[in-house]
Specification:
With 320 residues, the protein is an alpha/beta fold. 42% of the residues lie in helices and 18% in strands. The protein is built from eleven helices and nine strands. It has helices spanning 15-26, 46-56, 70-80, 99-110, 141-149, 180-190, 224-234, 240-260, 268-286, 293-304, 309-315; strands at residues 5-11, 33-40, 60-65, 85-88, 94-95, 114-122, 136-139, 161-164, 195-206. Strands 1, 2, 3, 4, 5, 6, 7, 8 and 9 form a nine-stranded mixed beta sheet that branches. α2 links the parallel β2 (33-40) and β3. α9 packs across α10 (293-304). The radius of gyration is 20 Å and the shape is globular. The mean pLDDT is 94.
Length: 320
């Protein structure tokens, strides 16, 4: 019999997109699913849509709670999950029909703890254009963490992955922080023995107006700085590859805040911290062949032609 997979879907004021998301989830070719919809205090009717789908599909369970943010909703779903495996789908995204079957196949065939597919970044309304697999790779924890921190084949997002449930026994998402995935994924991958990556693009990650990835800069965007500090500290006593990867990720976080924080006096301390991090670690990252070309070019501009950085930054498509 197929193993039970728990899909956790946090839902907050995504009524305009929720039906497309849930339609893609209930249509999965992998049938032994527990679908946990966590209504995080939605005020736009999303909770009622969740109940509508639960009446039509016995695999769906709805949890209604006070608003606590994405992390809190995910954690509630994790605590309620009864499956051997965990999958996360955000309420305004969509997935291919074989999304869970593919991910579960990766871990089942290889005896792995985590399976990862590729995210398709979508900027326009409509269906995501999913893409087939062309390669698979088996990674140990160090290789996977480095791949993630260097932002190579896959990113830090919890979505687009399947996890053995036990990996979340002691690690949960931090409530009230932005970049919650960055705050935990390095620990989750580090706790796995084997990770399988397949490059099929099966998760449609939607960038919408006023979403976390498109809204205006705020103080919460600076949460990435202490998160990167913790990542660097976590790997400080480990092998050189992990330390280099952590340094690269920390410098990327500093560059992000440095380039996007408004120069209105509200972010002066954060900008000074970014400059300090870039000056301390940027030269080594710029010479690190595994760091992304985009990162190394940004550092070259920082050290040699800093006034040009804002103009170049505006012309770079972030998700490419």
């Amino acid at each position: 019999m197929e193993e039970l997979v728990s899909i956790v879907v946090p839902v907050y004021n995504v009524g305009q997109y929720l039906r497309a998301c849930l339609d893609s989830v209930v249509a999965q070719t992998y049938r032994n699913l527990e679908i946990i919809l966590v209504d995080d205090g939605a005020t736009d009717g999303s909770g009622e849509i969740c109940e509508e789908y639960a009446r039509k599909d016995g695999r769906i369970r709805v949890i209604h709670k006070e608003n606590g943010g994405l992390s809190d909703a995910r954690n509630r779903g994790i605590r309620s999950a009864g499956g051997s495996w965990l999958v996360f789908v955000d309420g305004d995204d969509t997935v291919s029909r074989d999304y869970v079957e593919y991910l579960h196949g990766l871990v089942a065939d290889r005896g792995a703890d985590i399976g990862i597919c590729r995210l398709i970044h979508c900027f326009r309304e409509g269906r995501a254009e999913f893409e087939p697999e062309s390669e698979q790779r088996v990674l140990d924890a160090e290789e996977a963490v480095c791949e993630m921190l260097y932002q190579k084949s896959f990113l830090v997002a919890a979505c687009g992955k399947i996890f053995r449930r036990e990996l979340f026994r002691e690690t949960l998402f931090p409530r009230g922080m932005l970049f919650e995935d960055s705050a935990v994924m390095y620990k989750i991958l580090d706790g796995a023995e084997k990770i399988v990556y397949g490059d099929a693009g099966l998760y449609g990650y939607m960038h919408r107006e006023n979403s976390i990835t498109t809204r205006k800069f705020s103080k919460k965007d600076c949460d990435i700085l202490p998160i990167c500090d913790r990542i660097a500290e976590y790997f400080a006593g480990r092998g050189g590859n992990l330390r280099k990867a952590a340094a690269s990720y920390q410098v990327v976080g500093a560059l992000r805040v440095y380039l996007n924080a408004p120069r209105n006096g509200m972010y002066d301390s954060e900008i000074r911290k970014c400059i300090r991090i870039i000056k301390e670690k940027g030269w080594k990252v710029m010479r690190d062949s595994r760091a992304r070309t985009k990162t190394r070019l940004a550092l070259l501009l920082f050290f040699t032609a800093r006034p040009l950085m804002p103009m170049v930054h505006r012309k770079v498509r972030r998700w490419k």
